[in-house]
Amino acid sequence: MSLTRIIAVRHGETAWNAQTRIQGHMDIGLNDTGQRQAQALAQALADEPIHAIYTSDLARAWQTAQAIGQASGQAVQTHIGLRERHFGAFQGRTHTEIESSWPEQVLRWRGRDPHWEPEGGESLACLRERIVNTTAELAQRHPDQQIVLVAHGGVLDMLYRCANGLDVQAARTWQLGNATINRLIWRPSGMELVQWCDARHLENGALDELST
């Protein structure tokens, strides 16, 4: 049975990440730290055998993917299926603002109700289906090869859950670090986790070298 190796990456940091402001489908670019993270990530992956790079079309992911593409010599291809969860009316607001404006909705959000969706947004059940289908579509194009998927925290969370057989309601105990390296194997029968949240390339020394 053929398999596809996946390097899954969350985009580098944005100003809204630092402010705990919900981004969702809003198109926010990398901040200075995020740009340095993307360059460090690109250097860490420069010698990897990469056959394709797919990214969300949102700027923060696309900019991260472009750095990887320039270092590896691979063209970057966008796919809307790799976008973050659509948070509807929550988008653009901080966690504190959301808790103040929608206290009842926050209970369902924090409780990870799989069928609840913010007004105009997307449920966890729909997000999981989208990510499973998108990953399968892209992986099937590259049997016995390695690809990079550059996406968002919600996307990476679903990949981890799928690879470990966890329900969307399970409490999250794993990290979703910006610009960390996460490795999975995709087979038609399912996904397998190989490595999660490798951040060695983001240690202070590595980032300091990029800023000099």
Written overview of the protein:
The protein has helices at residues 15-18, 32-45, 59-72, 95-101, 103-110, 124-139, 153-164, 204-211; strands at 4-10, 52-55, 76-78, 146-151, 181-187, 190-198. It has 212 residues and is an alpha/beta fold. It has a six-stranded mixed β-sheet, sandwiched between helices. Strand 2 (52-55), helix 3 and strand 3 (76-78) form a beta-alpha-beta unit.
Head-to-tail CA distance between termini: 47 Å
Task: Please give the order of strands in the largest beta sheet.
Answer: 3-2-4-1-5-6
Question: How much beta, percentage-wise?
Answer: 15-25%
Low-confidence stretches: none
Helix fraction by DSSP (H/I, runs of at least 4)? 25-40%
Task: Give the secondary structure arrangement, pairings included.
Elements (H helix, E strand, L loop, with lengths): L3 E7 L4 H4 L13 H14 L6 E4 L3 H14 L3 E3 L16 H7 L1 H8 L13 H16 L6 E6 L1 H12 L16 E7 L2 E9 L5 H8 L1
Parallel strand pairs: 1-4, 2-3, 2-4
Antiparallel strand pairs: 1-5, 5-6
Helix pairs in contact: 2-3, 2-8, 6-7
Summarize the structure.
The chain has 212 residues and is an alpha/beta fold.
What characteristics describe this protein?
212 residues; single chain; 8 helices; six-stranded mixed sheet; alpha/beta; globular
